[in-house]
Design brief:
about 300 residues, alpha+beta, Double-stranded beta-helix, 7-stranded mixed sheet, 9 helices, globular, binds N-oxalylglycine, binds manganese (II) ion
Length: about 300
């Protein structure tokens, strides 16, 4: 059954009705969602009220699922509360209570308030994220999205030429420090588990053949350029992509599932009173390809 679409913004983002996520999605619906994502880059599915199993099963239709990193990477206290394949973007601990201020997972999440593309610090290209809103605070806590294709299209031609072939260094530690995580929480062990990776600044999305600017908070340096100059250029490009005309701000309703293409959008969490209200958000993330070590055995 074809989905019904309501556009949410002049350049991207749409709300789709007519699908209930889970393990029971037809190949036609998968193709339709792929086409809609190629066009809109952000898809909002309302009233899903999905379970963890449904969310994890749905993600599998669109690519190999990423596994969140555990306590080794993020430090003590950052243990995942959720089953495999679910990233915990909540402010809630294993005891069901709001995380204390000094908790490592809370410190990690501070970086989400900067414009970023999920897992751009991973060697594999990350395809989509799917975030489900289980408990929504009464005010604040929107998620902002920016269209990095529209941002690319609007660049002056000279800048497009300049960026062709340039790569950026992405590291989760660039964004954590920028986001306010104390640098002393990042030890040698963390650096070894997630070393920097290199991604092209301009990339073409296979299904739409559109070019997008791959920047955001994980990108910290441009190899071959002085550190300050590279950082300044990356910040300028991020500011360019996130101008109001390219931004859709999602106001959450309980039960929403929002899908975004990390290859051609940036997003950020916005503040809410996170010492007073619970916000339970759970994310599945898929890659374009499986890593070679996952293809054997
Ligand atoms: C994420 C993220 C934003 C939010 O889960 O990747 O950035 O508003 N979340 O929770
Ligand atoms: Mn994110």
């Amino acid at each position: 059954m074809p989905l019904t679409i309501q556009e949410l913004h002049p350049v991207f983002a749409a709300e789709a009705t007519g699908v209930k996520i889970g393990s029971n999605i037809s190949p036609e619906t998968v193709e339709e969602i792929e086409d809609l994502m190629a066009k809109y880059a952000i898809l909002v599915l309302r009233d899903q009220n999905c379970t963890d199993d449904e969310q994890v099963a749905f993600a599998k239709f669109f690519g190999p699922r990423e596994t969140p990193f555990g306590a080794t990477t993020y430090g003590k206290g950052s243990e995942n509360r959720l089953p495999m394949y679910l990233f915990d973007a909540s402010n809630i601990g294993r005891d069901g209570e709001i995380l204390p201020l000094d908790n490592a997972r809370r410190q990690m999440r501070l970086g989400d308030r900067l414009w970023h593309s999920d897992s751009s610090f991973n060697p594999l290209p990350t395809k989509w994220s799917m975030l489900s809103g289980r408990v929504i605070p009464p005010e604040g806590g929107n998620t902002d999205f920016a269209d990095a294709r529209a941002g690319y299209d609007a660049l002056p031609d000279a800048m497009k030429v300049r960026l062709e072939g340039l790569v950026a260094e992405h590291s989760i530690w660039h964004s954590r420090v920028k986001g306010g995580m104390p640098a002393e929480m990042i030890g040698e062990e963390q650096l070894q588990v997630l070393p920097p990776v290199y991604q092209p600044i301009v990339r073409t999305i296979p299904r739409s053949a559109r070019k997008a600017l791959m920047v955001g908070a994980h990108a910290g340096r441009i190899p071959g350029m002085p550190v300050d100059g590279g950082r300044k250029l990356l910040e300028e490009l991020t500011d360019h992509v996130t101008q109001p005309e390219f931004v859709y701000s999602h106001i959450w309703r309980q039960g929403d599932l929002v899908i975004w293409d990390n290859r051609c959008t940036l997003h950020r969490a916005t503040p809410f009173d996170d010492t007073k209200f619970k916000r339970d958000m759970r994310r599945t993330t898929v890659d374009e390809f499986a890593p070679s070590w996952a293809m054997v055995g």
